[in-house]
Amino acid sequence: MIIKKPHTRSLPVTQIYVWISLLLCISILLASCSQAPTKPAPTFAPNSVLAWIHQRAIPIQTLDPNASLDDLNGFQSIVGNASIVGLGEASHSVHEFSVMKQRLLELLVQRMGFTMFAMEVEWGLGEQVNHYVMTGEGNLRQIVGARFFDVQEILDVIDWIRSYNADPQHTQKVHFAGFHTQGGKNDYDAIQQYLQTVDPQHVDSEMSLYSGVLPELEYAPSASSQSLAQQRQDVAQAQQVYNFLKAHQAAYIARSSPQAFTQVLQEAQVLIETAQWWVHDPVDDPLAIKAFQQRDNNMTENVEWLHEYAPGGAKMVLWAHDWHIGMWGRWCCDPHNRVGEPYTWMGQYLRQRYGDQYLAVGFGFYQGSMNAFLVDANGNTISDRRQVVTIGPPDPQSYNATLNAVGIPQYILDLRHASAGSVSQWLSGPHQFRVFDNNYSTDQNMFYTPLSLGEWFDVMIFFQKVSPAKLLFN
Predict the structure, then answer these.
(1) Of the candidates 271, 54, 312, which has an alpha carbon nearest to the alpha carbon of residue 183?
(2) pLDDT tens digits for range 328-352
(3) Buried b (16+ CB within 10 A) or exposed e, 440-461
(4) What is d(CA 337, CA 125) in angstroms, rounded to the nearest whole number?
(5) Lowest-confidence range among 46-50, 211-215, 258-262, 320-324?
(6) Mean pLDDT of 436-458
(7) Strands 439-440 and 358-374, sheet pairing
(8) Which one of 207, 332, 358, 461 is most buried, counting C-beta atoms within 10 A?
(9) What pLDDT shows up at residue 276?
(10) CA distances, 390 to each of 183, 368, 374, 405, 434 (Å)
(11) How many other C-beta atoms can be found within 10 angstroms of the C-beta atom of residue 339?
């Protein structure tokens, strides 16, 4: 018996390939639709603004501090004759900001003759780090300790300065300084030793006036728990020492030198600032605005002193947060009312004092991650250890979104000399700009501020994506 096979119709091989290709295309299309766009176009910035940014942007080819500096030639032209270059940061503890600042420092030192690097750290700590970079003595990690800039990238910057100074071919050395308001035990010791040399009979009586400030000289905020009356007494007594030194200026200069007296008077001024930092009346000043304003006032005075009197200060690079470097500030201290309180930042004072000799360079980014303390919606810290936090894309109508929309991964942009029209209007704003400090909250509104980018900075250095710096302590 013969059994017949049922008739079947097979597809031609070419048709099978067509169907497979079609399915693959559909899969790829669906996958691409599910991914968020990497460069969302802002809804408010006209194409003329994007074209202007693209035309003027200087792409950053590498972040390797050991690479050639030739891609930064455009930045050298931007600096021109400026003698103080302020380098900001939209958040502390970001890898890209730190390594880029090292490259800029190398350029400014090696090609433009800058001789001081000053950071937003305590004055007394700066003196200890300066001793290290000038002599190589001491353990840098122990000197730095657990402070906000205790990341490997910043230690790399300091070690680069040390290596540069150690090279006998570099006869012009690079000094380090801190310009924050807190002093250190070494400031106290310097005053004591000076008085021991020029006026030993008054050492005990004058140094005893620092009894309330002395515990604060290792950057331990115990004075904040003292009564307001005691805090104010500490300020008054620190001022007494300063006044005593000033009253004996002629005699003390004759027994030492003008340079030695100028230095010790500044040490006494920093100890006044140390005492002042903790003074604020919770009734009259619930947001501590006076204390924060005093901080920027004092930091400005310290930078001016370094620029005018310190070795190497004639051409200096500053490292601080965007707020302190910038020249356009309208708020202080309340995350829910950031434009409501008058406030003047250090950068504004420096522009008033030095004009175009001061160059303000801001750092911004689109998205990425960083190290930060977690805070609640009121700005209160809820974690005692920094952790890596992820920052998503910003408000599409922010400056950050527009700077990202040009599609250049990292670049330098000179914000000055924009012609009238849409570009000038965009720079004038105000539009939102996103900056963090050392904190992070899920309430992202805390980190936006309406401002004028063109008034705030001379230059913007922008990154599409950032990553956390390497913490040494936590």
Answers:
(1) 271
(2) 766 555 544 444 566 789 999 999 9
(3) bbeeeebbbbebbbbbbbbbbb
(4) 34
(5) 211-215
(6) 86
(7) parallel
(8) 461
(9) 86
(10) 35, 6, 12, 20, 14
(11) 12
In order of their start, the domains of the chain are: 47-180+301-466 (3.40.1660.10), 185-279 (1.20.1440.30)
Distance (Å, whole) CA 180 – CA 333:
18
Q: What is the mean pLDDT of the chain?
A: 85
